[in-house]
Design a protein that fits this description.
The chain is of the alpha/beta class. The chain has a single domain, classed as Acetylglutamate kinase-like (Carbamate kinase), CATH 3.40.1160.10. It contains nine helices and eleven strands. A nine-stranded mixed sheet has the order 4-3-5-2-1-6-10-11-9, with helices on both faces. The chain has a two-stranded antiparallel ribbon with strand order 7-8. Helix 2 packs across helix 4 (about 70-95) and helix 6 (about 145-155) runs parallel beside helix 8 (about 200-210).
Length: about 240
């Protein structure tokens, strides 16, 4: 890494379910979990405060359930449960690395997770505990992208790190389907909204724009990508205010 000191002292990492799936077609790739836990351990040891929002798309997507005729709200609640599975798996990997970890859920599951309480989450971070937010926002029709933006703003994170699965930034088209897709190195939040770039949903982008929260979109599978982003290396795509780009 290019610097010896982290650029950011409090971050929120958004891990999509697909990123946790790695090369598998379904579920969780234990090697991916281990790599993520290793990197989080190293940055926590550098006094970086790390919060994490996990998606659930490796197990369930509410829109897929709706497409099969399921009530959308019910399907979304099922998706929230999928995020809890991922949160518990990640918590176990982090604790295996010696990282003190707390999982907070937006839906009440007292036996396995704390309820989400903003001030308690901030206190955990101040004590150098990793905090995993599960259950999305706790509301149907809202994505975990929106949950990530909302929690990042609530806990006063300095940056939102969006980890993708084998996609190393923001493109003007799907790079998997279109080899000629152009990668953007830097964008503004407004660019993302105007160009309708589908890296995150528009509500998440709008929240980040309004609260001047920078976003870094990068490939989770790239070497030490979480660490490199936190230490200020140019990884993926930076989305920020006009003055910062």
């Amino acid at each position: 890494m290019s610097t010896t000191q982290p650029k950011y002292k409090r971050v929120l990492l958004k891990l999509s379910g697909e990123a946790l799936m790695g090369k598998k077609d379904f579920g969780i790739d234990s090697e991916v979990l281990t790599r993520v836990a290793h990197q989080i351990k190293r940055v926590v040891d550098q006094d970086v405060e790390v919060a994490i929002v996990v998606g659930g798309g490796n197990f369930w997507r509410g829109t897929d359930g709706e497409a099969r005729g399921m009530d959308r709200a019910t399907a979304d609640y099922a998706g929230m449960l999928a995020t809890v599975i991922n949160a518990l798996a990640l918590q176990d990997s982090l604790e295996g690395e010696g990282v003190i970890t707390r999982t907070q859920s937006s839906i009440t599951i007292q036996a396995i997770a704390e309820p989400y309480i903003r001030r308690r989450a901030i206190r955990h971070l101040e004590k150098k505990r990793a905090v995993i937010f599960a259950g999305g926002t706790g509301n149907p029709y809202m994505t975990t992208d929106t949950a990530a933006a909302l929690r990042a703003i609530e806990v006063r994170a300095e940056v939102l790190l969006v980890a993708k699965n084998n996609v190393n930034g923001v493109y003007d088209a799907d790079p998997v389907k279109n080899p000629q897709a152009k990668k953007f190195e830097r964008l503004t939040h407004r660019d993302c909204l105007d160009l309708r770039l589908r890296v995150m949903d528009s509500t998440a982008f709008a929240l980040c724009q309004e609260n001047k929260l920078p976003i870094i979109v990068f490939d989770l599978q790239a070497r030490q990508s979480i660490e490199r982003a936190i230490f200020g290396e140019a990884v993926g795509t930076l989305v920020a205010n006009e003055a910062d780009t």
